[in-house]
């Protein structure tokens, strides 16, 4: 099962928006983000693109509504940690003035995968000087940036049993020296009630994930506006000082680690 949700909007000037994206944690609306680490970053001088991979550690738990639907003990120790990792990849096109980002959860993917993709771009204008049919970023377009957000929710809960049964059948056939044939050895079929209950559970999990993501998008927008306001008021120095104050408010004067 999969569900998509889309949202479009406008931000301020592209350069400030792309910088604010990488400085958005911590902020007063993202107190659940414990740490951010850059695990890979490189710049392609030919294509003029910056590629970045980051890992965010967040304070997060599955919603109680979802936990009530799951069999007891299915999460193991993950249910007690209260923390989860989110993988973020991004590409910044310096030449053409656009940025694409993708974030996905690394925990509980067998229950619910949430994949958020964003596309930031400057409004385009006709390139009448060199090529009337082409387009160029309109850097004077009232200092705005177009943003499109697409979020995909996928629940695979309950889909692992048929695949395991199929692999077991193939292994038994191989042990007897017989070629497994899909027509001769079809995977076990679920009964109507079992199939209906699994689909219903998946839809419920996805619906809960969608509600939480809507709330998170609003907080994310507010957090970006805070960072953009700091950049406009005093540049990078003020933005970094604001991050320091937010970190102290979250974790105390020593932050998440002792100062050396």
**Overall morphology:** globular
DSSP strand count: 9
Major sheet details: 7 strands, antiparallel
Helical content class = 25-40%
Mean pLDDT: 75
pLDDT < 50 runs, ≥5 residues: 130-134, 161-166, 190-196
Q: Which strand order does the major sheet show? A: 1-9-6-5-4-3-2
- Rg result: 23 Å
Note the run of SSEs as H and E: EHEEHHEEEEEEHH
Approximate strand percentage? 25-35%
Give the N-terminus to C-terminus distance in angstroms: 49 Å
Number of helices: 5
Main structural class: alpha+beta
Q: Could you describe the 3D structure shown?
A:
The chain is of the alpha+beta class and 260 residues long. It is built from five helices and nine strands. The protein has helices at residues 14-22, 64-69, 78-81, 160-175, 192-251; strands spanning 2-11, 33-44, 49-59, 83-93, 98-105, 113-121, 124-126, 135-137, 145-154. Helix 1 (14-22) crosses helix 5. The longest helix has 60 residues, at 192-251. It is globular.
Task: Compose a concise summary of this entry.
The chain has 260 residues and is of the alpha+beta class. 37% of the residues lie in helices and 30% in strands.
Question: How are the SSEs placed, and which strands pair?
Answer:
Elements: E1 2-11, H1 14-22, E2 33-44, E3 49-59, H2 64-69, H3 78-81, E4 83-93, E5 98-105, E6 113-121, E7 124-126, E8 135-137, E9 145-154, H4 160-175, H5 192-251
List keywords for this structure.
260 residues; alpha+beta; seven-stranded antiparallel sheet; two-stranded antiparallel sheet; 5 helices; 9 strands; 37% helix; globular
